[in-house]
Fold each of these.
Amino acid sequence: MRVKIPIKISRELIECQCGKLATWAYLPKGDWYRCDGCVPRGCDCNMLFDEQGNLVKEWLDDDGRQLPCCEWNYYEEGFDFDEL
Ligand SMILES: [Zn+2]
Ligand SMILES: [Zn+2]
């Protein structure tokens, strides 16, 4: 009988500048990694404006916080360099 042994994956997850696990990666730059608390929030790509430039609607996350720019990618369980 053959037993399937789960492969133990050891991953070096990327940390934020504050030392917490980074869950956000800024894709265009490629070397900006931030945790949920340090990621810069609030960008006009998450806002809708009318023709006069007035804010009509802003998309927020489940906790009511502003969202990071759409160029930040979110990884719920962290990430390592291979995953980027
Ligand atoms: Zn941080
Ligand atoms: Zn943006």
Amino acid sequence: MRIIDLSQPLYDGAPNCPAHPPVKVEIIADHPQVGWRVELLTLASHTGSHVDAPYHKLANGANLDHIPLGQFAGQAVIADFRGVGPDEPLTADKLAAKLPMPLADRIVLLATGWGTKRAKTDEWLQHPPYLSPDGAEWLVNQKIRAVGIDHYSIAGPRDPVNSQTHTILLGANVWIVEELSFPEEIFGISQPFEFMSLPINFRGFTGAFCRPVAIVR
Ligand SMILES: [Zn+2]
């Protein structure tokens, strides 16, 4: 069994959504003084690779406790959009061209290439490609289980588009995984493949950090 890591690292000052506080890591105990080392974290629950539950956008939506853990593991396919430009919408037409296979109950991962640009630059923070509302509707109509992207938000920083895209997906109980990273080797494996992004067991949360992986047997 081979595990391909699709996560982004978390560390002090890691790039994150500008609407959230900066990622802070403090060492509150260290070896020379006390014989062990411990980190204290200050960061939003939607930081680094993480899942969004419907409650993130919908006041009456399911939170993490309402979603069976098995939902976060399933068969995934990648839509390879690498080379897409800044601010470019991923629309229904573009998705249909990249995803000719059956998608029912599949986890659809959108590879924009923005994962490799992850830095506190104006381009990464403010101008990512994004899933348009009509693209989200198209995915919901294909009866997908979940959707992921290699950026901090499935629809970037722009409103009302971000809000609409989230509402369409989460309103259909399609969960989202954000801030993925796609190493070159993921594009060489056969599709669909086994994918897993198990969220940390935070009680009643709207989302949580996870470790997204592809499993190749
Ligand atoms: Zn999120």
